[in-house]
Amino acid sequence: MTKKTEKKAESKAKELQKQLFMKKKNSGLIMSDAEIKAADKFNEGYKKFLDEAKTEREAVKASVAILQKQGFSEYDKKKKYKAGDKVYMVNRGKALILAVIGKESIDKGVNILAAHIDSPRLDLKQNPLYEEAEMAYFKTHYYGGIKKYQWTAIPLSLHGVIVKNDGDVVEVNIGEDEKDPVFVVTDLLPHLAQEQMKRPAPKIITGEELNILIGSRPFKDDEASELVKLNIMNILFKKYGITEEDFISAELEVVPAFKAKDVGFDRSLVGAYGQDDRVCAYTAMMATIDIKGVPSRTVVTILTDKEETGSDGSTGLQSSYLEYFIYDLAESFGKNGRAVLSASKCLSADVNAGFDPTFGDVLEKKNSAYVGKGTVLTKFTGAGGKSGTNDSSAEFVGYVRKIFDENKIIWQTGELGKVDLGGGGTVAKYIANLDVDTIDLGVPVLSMHAPFEITSKADVYMTYKAFAAFIK
Ligand code: MN
Ligand code: MN
């Protein structure tokens, strides 16, 4: 064999590889400069949303403000809607459905995008306030899957509502404004932490040690006890008109007080609290808002609550509120809600684990999502032998894949970690259980559920584009 033919054989192999092998390229190599610029611009809006929407209630509020500016009006189930109409419905202040009525008859099915707007955090207990060693504290009960040790010694803010005895609702948001005070869970100094450091990681800080320091100055009087607590209660009474008993009917959430930031010299990443899953909530909502003209199928985008605790409760997706909304909408067109659901298609929009080379051994490289390689399509979630999963059908994966390729979406597939190492779930199964073809799509995240989560701006943008392609 001459050298020349050898070279020819190699190029044939290369040619075949190009034709037959899977391509997974960094978005930075594929995206044009104009597209990178568009992605950066999109992420500015995203960061602003993150700062305004640190809780599910705030996410609903911030979203409704955006929707009203974009011509969406509050859904009225008695009203007759026509193609092009844009509506939204708020569920108990904590979840949101928006819809754009399509040209096709609704019983041909609707396109659903579903993301969640609750994130792991520390909730105040219903009797939270106490004083010890002349300092005042709040007791907390954490919400969702957190590594408890990550929540100590960082600035925290307080968000939520207090419902007073007379029914008045007081809104609380302290620690976000530059001039606001912040709060903190204290940790033990290393000098005295010998015994603490021998504890297993879930107990380095226990749930009952996640106490929030809220003050140390006593009320000026020698007569009573618990003067620091009294001083705090007095401040709260003057500011909000509340007494200690009002905490019983409050939902107060403690979250990191820092703002969304660009990460890296190249500013290619976003670092912020609560990107799981507000990254999908924002991209899904913006894709729905930005639909050009009237979509062929009706679009129903749902931003739900309670995903992080299993989707139970009236504002979680195990509740019937999505089903009821679709039934009501179908009825207003004289159609059958069941028929609508059975013909519907859904992208369940949630984040997936991005491959982290520092902890590479928990992820299987061939089936892992990579930061910067586009939006991630996840056929199944669950744990062990695919327990508790919507395992999307090959046909539906094929349908979605074709849309993405036709619309030049940069996308990848991913599985949440190695087979036997754990797992997780999303709302996909609850929507699929309504007889809706459903698959997970979202953004790969580093440090998921940590107070400061990391995403790639390119992936955020590609997820927005992927939603837009699916619903157009
Ligand atoms: Mn999530
Ligand atoms: Mn999560």
**What is the overall number of helices?**
12
Mean pLDDT: 95
Using the alpha-carbon principal axes, give the shape.
globular
Radius of gyration: 25 Å
* Percentage of residues assigned to helices: 25-40%
| Main β-sheet description | 9 strands, mixed
Tell me the distance between the termini.
55 Å
Unreliable parts:
none
Which hetero compounds are present in the coordinates?
Answer: manganese (II) ion
**Quantity of strands, as a count:** 23
The largest beta-sheet arranges its strands as 1-2-3-14-4-15-21-17-19
Give the helix/strand class: alpha/beta
- Please report which band the strand proportion falls in: under 5%, 5-15%, 15-25%, 25-35%, 35-45% or over 45%: 15-25%
Overview of the structural elements:
With 472 residues, this protein is an alpha/beta fold. 30% of the residues lie in helices and 24% in strands. The chain has a 9-stranded mixed β-sheet with strand order 1-2-3-14-4-15-21-17-19, sandwiched between helices. The chain has a 7-stranded antiparallel β-sheet with strand order 8-7-11-5-6-10-9, with helices on one face. Strand 7 and strand 8 form a beta hairpin. Helix 3 (33-52) packs across helix 12 (457-471) and helix 7 (275-289) packs across helix 12. The protein is globular and about 85 Å long. It starts with a helix and ends with a helix. The mean pLDDT is 95. Residues 276, 308, 449 line the site of one manganese (II) ion (MN).
